[in-house]
Amino acid sequence: MRRGYTTGTCAAAAAGAAAWMLLHQSPCEKWRVTTPKGIELTLEIRDRFFSSHTASCAVRKDAGDDPDVTNGILVYAQVGKTRKTGIGIAGGSGVGRVTKPGLDQQVGEAAINSGPRGMIKGECQSVCDASGYKGGLLVTISIPGGEDLAARTFNPRVGIIGGISVLGTSGIVEPMSEKAYADTIRMELNQIRSTHSNHNEGVIFTIGNFGETFVRDTLGLSLDTQVKCSNFIGEALAAASELAFKRILLVGHIGKLVKLGVGILNTHSSHGDGRMETLIVCALEAGASLTVLQDLKDCVSTDAALEVLRRGSVLQHTMAILGERIDATLRRRLPPEIAIAFICFDKKLSQPDRRGEIICQSPHADKLMEVFKHG
Q: Which pLDDT score is estimated for 356?
């Protein structure tokens, strides 16, 4: 399936092109940008305008073969000179604003996540350096129709109002057709089974980019037998069982794995949420106070929920109960002869340098990790 690129990539390319037009006073038809995943894209620049004080342009979002509601939107960047040094970033019309704690940005900030902010600053700073410009720039990102489009997303529920979010940790949109992704998982598992290096007959499933990084950098495991299953945990487990894998290690962020605590095995938001409800039930069993339970109900992210549990001194007990529930869900899906373990970690997206920490895991996860270290 064909990949696409994120709203964050669109915003960064538009910002770079607008900065270039402002500082060179010349039109820009295409802009080359390298995504955090290392993929280089050359994007068409639309609706170009520049004057001696400001410049603006847009990039059209292409989600590839992913059924993304933002596919085809125009992401605009307006760039102006400022007296302050550095690159400032603001949200214009159609870009949501954060109204609740626990998200990537602080309350009151535009819902432009840290990944896209870094890309925007990088593109503009490169233009400034190449042009010899020592002053500052203010970049305003806007998305026409974003406020109406937000009603078709989870933004209002999580406390982002007035528009959509500018997202993208990798800069690339991976196609999420369920059948196509399930076929891809099976293909990768077949490849692992066919190699002579897989002596331990095991596979590591990771949910996404953060899980892959956590496996490599924090757990110190090889990625040779790793398959990224994304949201399709149930399909991945079924395929591994059919292909006679004997050992499975599942590694993921709590924002996804918490859903296994109520038996949800496709963790995409379109298949249901239940994150806070699951944590409330586990916290209740752990003896949390009514105040903690009420605060959990108002959380919009698992990061915010973990802070509530820490303050209420029930984090460790709650995570132990959640771990038992996740373990039971996984065991119900597989025959007893398959060794299955999970590792659930926490990583605050607002702190990109944080490597993450394990917050719950299967009782025998350490033993299984040793197999993957030496297998």
A: 79
pTM above 0.85, yes or no: no
Same domain, 32 and 124: yes
Characterize the bridge pairing of strands 136-142 and 87-91: parallel
Residue 198: per-residue pLDDT: 57
264 and 292 housed in the same domain: yes
As a dihedral over the C-alpha atoms of residue 276, residue 278, residue 284, residue 289, rounded to 10 degrees, the angle is -10
Cβ proximity of 230 and 182 under 8 Å: no
The residue among 118, 150, 173 that closes a domain is: 173
Domain region containing 71: 4-173
110 and 185 fall within a common domain: no
Three-state SS sequence of 348-369:
CCCCCCCCCEEEEECCCHHHHH
Q: Residue 186: what pLDDT?
A: 84
Question: Count of alpha carbons within 13 Å of 259, Cβ hemisphere only?
Answer: 21
The DSSP 8-state label assigned to residue 169 in this structure reads: S
For residue 230, the model assigns a pLDDT of: 85
E strand or H helix at 339: strand 339-346
Could you tell me if 166 and 11 are in contact, meaning their C-beta atoms sit under 8 angstroms apart?
yes
Measured in whole angstroms, the distance separating CA 350 from the mean position of its chain's CA atoms is 12
Instruction: State whether 121 and 200 are in the same domain.
Output: no
pLDDT at 154: 74
Positions in the chain whose pLDDT score sits under 50: 349-353
Q: What is the rounded CA–CA span in Å between residue 296 and residue 261?
A: 16
Predicted local confidence at residue 29, as pLDDT: 97
The one-letter code for the residue type at 190 is: N
Provide the 8-state DSSP code for 217: I
Sign, CA torsion 168/173/177/182: negative
Which residue do the tokens 């050992």 mark?
Answer: 247
User: Residue 216 forms beta bridges with which residues?
Assistant: none
CATH of the domain at 47: 3.30.2110.10
Domain count of the fold of the chain? 2
Residues contacting residue 165 through CB under 8 Å, at least 6 positions apart: 7, 95, 96, 111, 112, 113, 153, 155
